[in-house]
């Protein structure tokens, strides 16, 4: 009985162990290009340092991130047998926290929280990914109301993920900032891929088909030069 109690105490003591000298249990890494995969969308091979969004498309900017977990499962080796418990240091992400700074300045809320669910197993490598809307719905509405045709604004979005370990201990990631150049072309969003007379679908097609993102599909005047 004493041996069992001792093992239980050691396991509890090691539940919140995080490798890397106290670093965050989760880390947001690179932003990457997106690519179509079957009927869905995932991250591609190349790292990107910023994006572009035509807000007349009415959509947010979908950002693909590499993410990893520094948490490790507790182990207790007794007589060559591991009595550790797996899953105690898995991370469940519950929300993304977005903060915004625009240049030139816009009237934007300072912070927006987006509920999510994402399970990261302890020791997950940087091959794991996370797709998020980098602009929340409230900020997007404010941007569409503020950015007028002919105007260009650089929006710096600072992103942080929050969640909990298997023992309910709260964790949060590092912060990363991603710049997005916003403009409002005033062009039309295609309906059923058919553009109005006098306009044509942009010839640069985003791999995942997101409207207005990185010159994704949107109806532009036939004789106009894209900004």
Q: Helices, strands, pairings?
A:
Blueprint: H1 2-14, E1 26-37, E2 40-48, E3 51-54, E4 62-69, E5 77-78, E6 81-82, E7 91-103, E8 111-120, E9 128-133, H2 137-146, E10 152-165, E11 170-172, E12 176-183, E13 199-201, E14 219-221
Parallel strand pairs: 3-12
Antiparallel strand pairs: 1-2, 1-4, 4-9, 5-6, 7-8, 7-10, 10-11, 10-12, 13-14
Describe the overall structure.
By secondary structure, the protein is mainly beta. It has two helices and 14 strands. The strands form four sheets. Strands 3, 7, 8, 10, 11 and 12 form a six-stranded mixed beta sheet that branches. The chain has a four-stranded antiparallel beta sheet with strand order 2-1-4-9, with no helix packed on it. Strands 5-6 form a two-stranded antiparallel ribbon. The longest helix is centred in the N-terminal third of the chain and has 13 residues, at 2-14. The radius of gyration is 22 Å and the shape is globular.
Main sheet: strands, sense, barrel: 6 strands, mixed
Bin the helical content. Answer: 10-25%
Task: Name the structural class.
Answer: mainly beta
- Calculate the terminal CA-CA distance, rounded to whole Å: 74 Å
Shape: globular
Q: Strand-residue fraction? A: 35-45%
The radius of gyration over CA amounts to 22 Å
Strands, count: 14
What is the H-and-E element order? HEEEEEEEEEHEEEEE
Given the structure, what is the number of helices?
A: 2
Average of per-residue pLDDT values: 77
* Uncertain stretches: 1-22
């Amino acid at each position: 009985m004493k041996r069992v109690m001792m093992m239980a105490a050691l396991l509890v003591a090691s539940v919140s162990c995080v490798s890397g000298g106290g670093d965050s249990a989760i880390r947001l890494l690179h932003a990457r290009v997106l690519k179509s995969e079957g009927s869905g969308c995932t991250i591609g091979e190349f790292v990107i340092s910023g994006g572009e969004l035509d807000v007349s498309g009415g959509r947010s900017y979908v950002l693909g991130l590499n993410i990893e977990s520094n948490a490790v499962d507790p182990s207790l080796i007794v007589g060559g047998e591991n009595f550790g418990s797996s899953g105690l240091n898995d991370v469940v992400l519950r929300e993304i926290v977005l903060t915004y700074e625009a240049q030139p300045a816009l009237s934007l809320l300072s912070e927006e929280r987006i509920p999510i669910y994402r399970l990261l197993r302890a020791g997950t490598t940087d091959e794991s990914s996370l797709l998020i809307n980098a602009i929340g719905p409230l900020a997007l509405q404010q941007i569409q109301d503020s950015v007028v045709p002919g105007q260009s604004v650089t929006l710096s979005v600072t992103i942080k993920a929050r969640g909990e370990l298997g023992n309910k201990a709260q964790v949060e990631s590092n912060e990363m900032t991603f710049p997005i150049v916003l403009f409002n072309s005033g062009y039309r969003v295609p309906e059923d891929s058919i553009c109005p007379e006098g306009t044509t679908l942009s010839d640069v097609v985003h791999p995942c088909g997101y409207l207005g993102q990185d010159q994704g599909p949107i109806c532009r005047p036939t004789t106009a030069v894209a900004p």
